[in-house]
Specification:
heterodimer; A: TIM Barrel; two-stranded antiparallel sheet; 10 strands; about 20% helix; globular; B: about 575 residues; Sulfite Reductase Hemoprotein, domain 2; Sulfite Reductase Hemoprotein, domain 1; five-stranded antiparallel β-sheet; about 35% helix; binds iron/sulfur cluster; DUF934 domain-containing protein (chain A)
Chain lengths: ~160, ~575
């Protein structure tokens, strides 16, 4: 599936692995159960976690040092738990890797996802990235702090620039 | 890195004293235009088929657009219920031009138009933006319009001005990146007075602004209230949050809710269910989240508070004596005026001034409705007599907050000419009713006609005065938009095998003594409800001790005498 990063489509190096499939060589995204069950001692290729919307980031904090990617999921576009998960991963756990939004994501959510710390979005087949960037850039005034870089401004209104 | 940078800190505007409402500057206006462009684009994508109706629905709801029984309903935000005269005139214009000449004021201190055509919405949005208004976040699963005390800045019992913090909440929650896709809608009420006029415990979050012994401002926070099919009263989760940590604390509450609120069943998705199920653990989780939040980032800067507070500076009150002779004489010489003043005029913190509550509940009328002409009449009176300021109350009336006592007779004359001088504030015909079957697609029964029947039955002012303070709340279905659970007399219309049946609860309250009403027994048919209310009130009158209001008597004698009177076999 196409992957959106920095407003552009980029190659996706990751494979999402089913619980009963063999572990492949390339960077692999696993479920929490699989990650916990697997003996990963010898593995050097990057690992990713498909985080269930109901799992709190605290529950996977111990795994984060080994993870290069966390995929958060919007089962339906209006199920917004991923926003809090992303923000918590960045803000409380200092997670530096890729946070990927998957599932039923709307272009109208792109700006908010980025502001919560999401870095990439898995798009539906055939999606036009321009629709996503246009939607993200439409409103560039924000009234509250988020995961945006820059000085802490508290409630001060600020102008956003996508970088 | 793929993220946003806060490129520029935008200045907070400074304004002349007494701006009446929060005054927009270029930044706020630019934001509004961006938001209009965003919604227009969403409408285009919907029309082009790029968005499914399922995907579009939450987006249109977040812009105040509902699909009702006969047409779209457009709900316009009146932040914390404060309007200036120019804005009210514009609402009158919209009512006339794009609706049927009426607007409907709601219990959320907003206004809605019930006959909106989708193709007119962009024009209406622009007309609203011309007077710094919009419909953002009046619906949908986001943080809704914050409500506050309709007498804020005027009431003698006020400890701190809640409008300042209501505006701070408004700004903070506007397109909040994390809390726009919550499990359900989220309603915050805030008060700065010890007497609860905001139904604090019926809200997802209720905030009391307080001052400590050192004169510092802080907040008492309640959470988990809500009506709907499972009514729950909010519980207190914090005695004191310092002003600078207010937003950090709200972030923590919302984060816990967004992470843990039920997503599978919309009837279990409100925060009240989470708070009820978690019990004390809810507050503990909020504390844990609060403790680890980067406080510097979420700090509420006192400078920002001051700047926003400058918008709500007191109007230039004249030095006037209380109870001027002109007013006393008018009261003495005009019984009708005196009767109205008794119900509608309220003490003010500035000597020589008063607040006037305008009833939108004429006998036999639709609660909360106002015609374009009436809105204009109120706007004119506000300009002449109340520094151009109007409030919308959570019981669907209007308020002129700052009227000179010597002008009260002139205000009454003006209201009378506009058909707005019904002297029934706080009395039995000051009914809250949801739109019900007349407009609402979810309704199981009529609501407005029941209000009309009851108000006609008790049309006599003498009778109403004899009954005294008694609040009737009517909902047309279990969603409880008419807040029937917290009415002294609550009426819920349900569908019973194809016929409307009205369940009556007694003893509810939405103020400091908040309580959920108790069901009196089996429901009543549509044409028997008014008789049932009559019986209930007769029972009260027969049992009351001197000075007791309906709800006091009810609390003393309980349900049994009412049950007996209602269901006794003749
Ligand atoms: S209570 Fe029911 S009928 Fe009344 S407005 Fe709400 S949803 Fe509609």
């Amino acid at each position: 599936m196409p992957l959106l990063e920095d407003g552009r489509l980029v190659a996706d190096d990751w494979v999402t692995v089913a619980d009963d499939a063999p572990l492949p060589d390339p960077p692999a995204i696993l479920t929490l159960a699989r990650l916990r069950a697997e003996d990963l001692a010898g593995r050097n290729a990057p690992l990713g976690l498909a985080l269930d919307p109901a799992t709190q980031p605290e529950e996977i904090a111990d795994l984060l040092p080994r993870l290069s990617l966390v995929a958060v999921l919007l089962p339906k576009s209006k199920d917004g738990r991923a926003f809090t998960q992303a923000r918590s991963l960045r803000e409380h756990h200092g997670f530096q890797g890729e946070i990927r939004a998957t599932g039923h994501v709307l272009p109208d959510q792109y700006r908010m996802l980025l502001r919560c710390g999401v870095s990439t979005v898995q798009l539906p087949e055939g999606a036009d990235p321009a629709v996503w960037t246009r939607s993200a850039d439409l409103v560039d005034i924000a009234y509250q702090p988020a995961r945006d870089a820059g000085a802490p401004l508290g409630l001060r209104r600020r102008r956003l620039e996508r970088v | 890195m793929n993220a946003y940078v806060d490129v520029t800190a935008l200045p907070a505007p400074a304004y002349p004293p007494h701006a009446r409402t929060y005054r927009y500057d270029e930044v706020d206006r630019e934001f509004l235009q961006e938001r209009i462009a965003e919604f227009s684009g969403q409408v285009e994508r919907r029309l082009a088929g790029a968005l499914t109706e399922d995907e579009f629905k939450p987006l249109r709801l977040m812009n105040g657009l509902y699909l009702q029984l006969h047409a779209y309903m457009y709900r316009i935000a009146i932040p914390y219920g404060i309007l200036n005269a120019t804005q009210l005139r514009q609402l009158a214009m919209i009512a006339r031009r794009w609706d049927r000449g009426f607007g409907h004021f709601t219990t959320r201190q907003n206004i809605q138009f019930n006959w909106t055509r989708l193709e007119d919405v962009p024009d209406i949005m622009r007309a609203l933006a011309d007077v710094d208004m919009h419909a953002i976040q009046t619906s949908g699963n986001c943080i809704r319009n914050t409500t506050t005390d309709e007498y804020a800045g005027a009431s003698p019992d006020e400890v701190a001005d809640p409008r300042v913090y209501a505006e701070i909440i408004r700004q903070w929650s506007t397109l909040h990146p994390e809390f726009t896709w919550l499990p359900r809608k989220f309603k915050i009420a805030i008060t700065g007075a010890p007497h609860d006029r905001v139904a604090l415990q019926a809200h997802d979050v209720g905030v009391v602004v307080r001052k400590n012994a050192a004169g510092e401002t802080g907040f008492e926070v309640w959470a988990g209230g809500g009506l709907g099919r499972t009514p729950v009263l909010a519980r207190k989760i914090r005695d004191w949050v310092g002003e600078d940590e207010f937003l950090a604390y709200l972030e923590a509450v919302l984060r816990v809710y967004n992470a843990l609120g039920n997503r599978d069943n919309i009837y279990k998705a409100r925060i009240k269910i989470l708070v009820r199920d978690l019990g004390d653990e809810f507050a503990e989780r909020v504390e844990a989240e609060f403790a680890r939040l980067p406080k510097r980032k979420y700090r509420l800067d006192p400078e920002i508070v001051d700047q926003i507070a400058s918008h709500f500076a007191p109007p230039p009150f004249a030095a006037l004596p209380d109870n001027p002779q002109a007013y006393a004489q008018a009261l003495d010489g005009n019984a009708e005026f005196a009767a109205w003043a008794k119900q509608s005029v309220r003490a003010h913190k500035a000597p020589g001034y008063a607040s006037v509550t305008i009833s939108l509940k004429p006998i036999g009328g639709i609660p909360g409705d106002a015609s374009a002409e009436q809105m204009e009449a109120v706007a004119t009176l506000a300009e002449r007599h109340s520094f151009g300021e109007i409030r919308v109350t959570h019981v669907q009336n209007l308020v002129l907050p700052h009227v000179r006592q010597e002008d009260l007779l002139a205000v009454w004359d003006g209201l009378r000419a506009a058909g707005l001088a019904t002297p029934n504030i706080g009395l039995i015909s000051d009914i809250i009713a949801c739109p019900g079957m007349d407009y609402c697609a979810l309704a199981t029964a009529r609501s407005i006609p029941v209000a009309q029947m009851i108000s006609e039955r008790f049309a006599s002012l003498d009778r109403q005065l004899d009954i005294g303070e008694c609040f009737i709340n009517i909902s047309g279905c279990i969603n409880a938009c008419g807040h029937h659970h917290v009415g002294h007399i609550g009426i819920l219309g349900v569908d019973k095998r194809g016929a409307e049946s009205y369940q009556i609860t007694l003893g509810g309250s939405a103020t400091n003594d908040a309580a959920i009403g108790e069901l009196v027994g089996p429901g009543f048919a549509y044409d028997a409800v008014t008789d049932a209310v009559e019986t209930i009130l007769r029972t009260y009158v027969a049992h009351r001790a001197a000075g007791e209001r309906f709800v006091d008597t009810y609390r003393r004698i309980g349900l049994a005498p009412f049950k007996e009177a209602l269901y006794a076999v003749a």
